[in-house]
Amino acid sequence: xxxxxxxxxxxxxxxxxxxxxxxxxxxxxxxxxxxxxxxxxxxxxxxxxxxxxxxxxxxxxxxxxxxxxxxxxxxxxxxxxxxxxxxxxxxxxxxxxxxxxxxxxxxxxxxxxxxxxxxxxxxxxxxxxxxxxxxxxxxxxxxxxxxxxxxxxxxxxxxxxxxxxxxxxxxxxxxxxxxxxxxxxxxxxxxxxxxxxxxxxxxxxxxxxxxxxxxxxxxxxxxxxxxxxxxxxxxxxxxxxxxxxxxxxxxxxxxxxxxxxxxxxxxxxx
Amino acid sequence: xxxxxxxxxxxxxxxxxxxxxxxxxxxxxxxxxxxxxxxxxxxxxxxxxxxxxxxxxxxxxxxxxxxxxxxxxxxxxxxxxxxxxxxxxxxxxxxxxxxxxxxxxxxxxxxxxxxxxxxxxxxxxxxxxxxxxxxxxxxxxxxxxxxxxxxxxxxxxxxxxxxxxxxxxxxxxxxxxxxxxxxxxxxxxxxxxxxxxxxxxxxxxxxxxxxxxxxxxxxxxxxxxxxxxxxxxxxxxxxxxxxxxxxxxxxxxxxxxxxxxxxxxxxxxxxxxxxxxxxxxxxxxxxxxxxxxxxxxxxxxxxxxxxxxxxxxxxxxxxxxxxxxx
Lengths: 270, 326
Hints:
The complex is a heterodimer. Chain A is built from eleven helices and no strands. Chain A is an all-alpha fold.
């Protein structure tokens, strides 16, 4: 019996696997992806490194700008690939097929965002390679578990904000394009490439509402020789908490978006 | 008389209004009524056709019935479920294709496309492989399934669309212009596939621009114009509307005044007249009288050829559209 049930799938892994495989196949030969995942973060890291060195910054701050380049790569990858994915689906008529299927739109967007962040991890891994092999920075063994947890927390933050923004991309072509303008403001507000304390105080309330700001601070803290665990725990907890708020808002937003696109007919490009 | 249990699609006074933005500085929302107060039902196992000019509201209707668009007014049910509310009950039971080469991932193989949609339709993992194999065989794409879809011809892509729409074994299938842009042999293959779907007991809503296709396939046809159903009947009954009319096609090398003069004299016998570059088409209830008058022109080679035939479904369609266009 092959008829679909329309109920929740028992095992989501094959769907996640298929979606990731599709995302990779769709851009395996894309020059744009190469630029986004490797070239752009490399430029950010190099420029950041040079600026930090000219300013006479000590080693951890140098690490900060290089790892920040990797985070920037992840962020850009998520922002732009999600944009191109949905635009392509809209143009090729597959967005209608996705929305018209028994799988909820939010599930598809969540899995896609996950796949895009996973692809974006290439930038992060490269930045680690640069830090360890090029700059000979040794990360003490006791920091390793904290760095891994920080990366997972950051990944979760990326995912929550990514799924949230993806709904605006589906909602209409105009709002979808506006999301692209968030690339650099969010990178600055979440202090990807410099310590958060450098931001003016009057803007910090806005930064604090972005889970990535806490995730990045946590990741930076986990690189420090002298770990302050209480601060680290606080960063992780806040990042996860803010991420959950985004997911909660997304839950309510998803129904609104689903109804809205059914009124406006914004699913196809015609 | 339709049995209520056999009704798969039931549409009552369905309406859809879109708003287009006009102006640059002072933007104003302008309502466009894409579908106006349409009502019809489709029974189980029926192949129901919708024909009409571009922008008539066919695709909008299909999209409302596919739960992709919300109606502005009226009501539509699929298997007794409301299209506005019960999307989760309806979606697993319907399949749809939209015409042209849209609706597939060109950079992926047919196999990957089908696997992805099988996942979206939550097919049981153990059945996916067999079901894809079966569908590829049905549409005649076995052996080409590993090729990228972008290398497929339009006909192959359309057959893949059908495989995708059939993958989850839906009871109701919407086919929106399935043969658009396909060569005659490819179109014939698609029509054969559609007939096979009907034989398998599927209910089908087909939209098309091609009258011969509608006539060959459909049990009933709705003619849609400006968002309204202006005629709805079996192909045979629709043709009866023009059964007392004949069509005379006159081939003329150039526009000639002698012919125009003759036709002006015959205006009482002409139901409808249409001109194109080198042909004049006349609908008449009295072909003998017209042929007599034109015989002299044919003899003098003012006109090169005359054909007389019965009115076709296309002629009826043109007549219905003409009468319903303000």
